[in-house]
Amino acid sequence: MAIKVLHVIARMNVGGTARYVGELVEKIPDSSLATGYVQGLEVEDSCVQALPVIRIPHMGRKISPFKDFQAWLELRKIIHEQKPSIVHTHTFKAGLIGRLVGGPHRRVHTFHGHLFDDQSFSGLEKKVITFAEKFLANRTDLLISVGNKVGIELRTEGVGKNKNWQSIAPGVIALAQMEKKEARRKIGINNDSVLFGWMARVTEVKNPFLLIEVAKRLPSVDFVMAGGGNLLEQVKARAPKNLSVIGWADASVFWSAVDCAISTSDNEGMPVALIEAQLAGIPVIATDVGSNSEVIENGVTGIVTTKDLEVLVSSVQSLISDSSMLRSMGEAAKKRATHEFSMEKMLNAHKEVYRNLNNEFFKHPPTHTP
After folding, report:
1. Sequence-separated (6 or more) residues with CB below 8 Å from residue 136
2. In CA terms, which of 15, 88, 340, 366 is 20 to 30 Å from 230?
3. What average pLDDT is seen over the chain?
4. Pairwise CA distance, residues 111 & 95, whole Å
């Protein structure tokens, strides 16, 4: 018998988290999605078009007591009407609102990363968020981290220290590839030099300004940045000539065009974009944050580095100067990513989680406060 699961997320903006949630909703029977709308310069991921979506009109990423209360009322009504066996929330805002809705359903929450290193939040805001996560963990039957290291860091901060945890890596489907010259033409690159590609939301937590500094230090090396966000115009204004800032781009075209991926994030979960790059046979240079070290095998499929500018520059130089290393890392990246991040593994892990929780439901009905 299918287990009715309602996934809740604040918004499905373009990126790995949206695709992670979208695959669960699309491929696990009797699943549906409750979500708000993207805001500002963000773009909604195209995967949403094929999903059974229930909109939460007042749900959004930004903290707004009035709108958040309205979103809570809207979600409570949806849960009452849908009567899911499990409510599975994703990311902080949805986890906050979703886990405060009472009812006999089981609660699952997935951390696709955490906010401890997010520069867009003040120290006080982070303390409040951490306090809230500790409280909400006690209203949760299972906590999932996308990446083992993310879960360890959360427990170190006291979030769900004595609760049930599971780490589930994303399942990622290899993107279609095209001829490199054609792909570069599509993104506006007209040379055949070694090209380093950065693809993420252009926001504080992804630290795009660090890539600008790397590019400035290496004026003979070509870089391209894809993505949109609140810092896009500032990045365009500061970018040196060897860094092309192209805005949103098709991932399959982008990874067909570049020779090496680079990530300068201050905070990550388990970034799907870097897995997609590796599935395309592209090595990755990435800062050692979140579960990046689980995505990249350091020295084998890429380089995991500190956020120090000199170390990042040296990492780029090492691959520029050794084409055989660049090629061998790309081959190893594709092989490892294909094995470690299969869609079947991710879906089966979630199905098992839902079965276990559903069986437990009938043995020991939940006692959450309504």
Report:
1. 95, 96, 99, 100, 109
2. 88
3. 92
4. 9
3-state SS class at 364 = coil
d(C-alpha 58, C-alpha 320), whole Å: 48
Residues 6+ apart with CB under 8 A from 344: 171
Q: Could you tell me how far CA 2 lies from the centroid of its own chain?
A: 27
Taking phi over 0 as left and psi of -120 to 50 as alpha, with beta for the rest, 325 belongs to: alpha
Q: What domains lie within the chain, and their CATH numbers?
A: 5-171+342-363 (3.40.50.2000), 180-340 (3.40.50.2000)
The SS3 assignment for 200 reads coil
- Are 78 and 329 in contact, with CB atoms under 8 Å apart? no
* Cα–Cα distances in angstroms (integers) from residue 360 to residues 5, 6, 340, 366, in the given order: 15, 18, 29, 9
Structure tokens at 224: 């391209």
Q: What is the distance between the alpha carbons of residues 336 and 362, in angstroms, rounded to a whole number?
A: 40
C-alpha–C-alpha distance, residues 269 and 155, integer Å: 15
What is residue 297's three-state secondary structure?
A: coil
User: pLDDT per residue over 309-346, tens digit each?
Assistant: 999 999 999 999 999 999 999 999 999 999 999 999 99
Q: What is the CA radius of gyration of the chain?
A: 21
Alpha-carbon distance values, 321 to 261, 285, 314 (Å): 16, 15, 11
User: Token digits for 229?
Assistant: 């966000």
User: Could you read off the pLDDT of 266-289 as tens digits, one per residue?
Assistant: 988 899 999 999 999 999 999 999
List the helix and strand counts (H, then E) for the chain. Answer: 14, 13
The span from the CA of 330 to the CA of 147, in Å, is 22
Position 275, amino acid: I
- C-alpha to C-alpha distance for 361 and 365, rounded to whole angstroms: 5
Residue 15 predicted with pLDDT over 90 = no
Model pTM?
A: 0.82
- What is the distance between the terminal CA atoms of the chain, rounded to a whole angstrom? 27
Contact by Cβ (8 Å): 89, 99 = yes
